[in-house]
Design brief:
This protein is mostly beta strands and 320 residues long. The protein has a single domain, classed as Distorted Sandwich (Beta-galactosidase, Chain A, domain 5), CATH 2.70.98. Helix content is 7%, strand content 44%. It has four helices and 22 strands. Strand 3 and strand 4 form a beta hairpin.
């Protein structure tokens, strides 16, 4: 349930009623009957507290956007006891590094239920929505995510916070995963000290299709026959679709230690029949003891596609 923290008269619009810019509306989205929509007049963000995800980020008035939702699981909920991941789509946050999950949570997969397996409580703070999780039993961590839109710009910001409330101190990083529709191409923009060749870390047996590194950009596409994943040092990922471009930024901390052989950005491409990619940004690893917290801000920028070549579209978006 949304607990409005604003003044009386500013409560979210009833389900199905369009909300004015700056408002928070309750809507029925793809079978989730208590979804929330932020709208700034330029873009909209759709949040589903029942599954703890941001399920869409799109231009205002459109039916679809870059984020991917599993067509077989629309409207369904989560099962924390499941031994399989309930792959619903959207944007969520997990604890890094993944290779610590077995030791801390007692299982290496699916993700820890407090991060991705239980509903979240949603509250309103002005024109922002804050999602708050239950405390994960293994990690002793509570997750909060503040979702807000910029005024009059196609920009969404999500601030993810891990708060340690129980258990032994852990070394953790904030890991944000955005599942997006099958792209024309995905780009990782390299930054920080250059790596020795290759400029990426191989994180799967097979590599994504059409992988190449050129002038500070890693370009790739989805291979429909097999999964692939790479990591790199950077602060920006760009998804290029047929009509839209999605840029995701998360600051790179100089000198910090990152998981997965120093990866601050990662791209995963899924094989058929589920045609999606994952744009992943990772924060540095930090020691987290009871009473402490770590926080990461991720910025999502949406643009209309104007250039014929995907690389030209990316350079235009980067201001090159």
């Amino acid at each position: 349930m949304l607990a409005a923290t604003s003044r009386p008269g500013e409560d979210p619009s009833p389900a199905g009623v369009p909300a004015p810019p700056g408002a928070v509306a309750r809507i029925d989205y793809q079978g989730w009957h208590d979804a929330l929509m932020l709208n700034n007049g330029v873009v909209e963000a759709v949040i589903v507290p029942a599954i703890g995800r941001v399920m869409q980020f799109r231009f205002a008035g459109q039916d679809d956007g870059p984020f991917w939702a599993n067509p077989a699981l629309l409207g369904q909920g989560l099962n924390p006891a499941s031994q399989e991941w309930v792959n619903l789509g959207g944007d969520k946050a997990w604890p890094a590094p993944q290779d610590a999950w077995s030791r801390i949570a007692g299982r290496g997969w699916p993700p820890p239920s407090g991060f991705d397996g239980l509903p979240m409580e949603a509250t309103r703070d002005g024109s922002a929505v804050i999602l708050v999780s239950a405390v994960d039993a293994g990690f002793g961590v509570r997750v909060s995510r503040r979702i807000e839109l910029a005024v009059d710009r196609p920009v969404m910001t999500i601030t993810t916070r891990f708060e340690k409330v129980a258990g032994a101190a852990l070394e953790l990083g904030v890991w944000t995963i955005t599942q997006a529709r099958d792209p024309v191409a995905v780009y990782a923009i390299l930054s920080g000290p250059p790596r020795p060749d290759p400029a990426y870390v191989r994180l799967s047996e097979a590599l994504p299709a059409n992988l190449k590194v050129e002038e500070g950009l890693i370009a790739l596409t989805r291979d429909p026959r097999r999964d692939g994943k790479i990591g790199a040092r950077g602060a920006t990922l760009v998804w290029v679709g047929e009509r839209e471009v999605l840029r995701i930024d998360s600051p790179l901390v100089p000198g910090a230690r990152y998981p997965d052989q120093g990866s601050s950005v990662e791209v995963y491409t899924n094989a058929d029949p589920l045609a999606y990619v994952e744009l992943e940004v990772l924060g540095p690893l930090e020691k987290l003891a009871v009473g402490g917290c770590i926080e990461r801000q991720t910025t999502y920028t949406l643009a209309h596609r104007t250039e014929k070549e995907p690389a030209a579209e990316v350079r235009k978006m980067l201001g090159h």
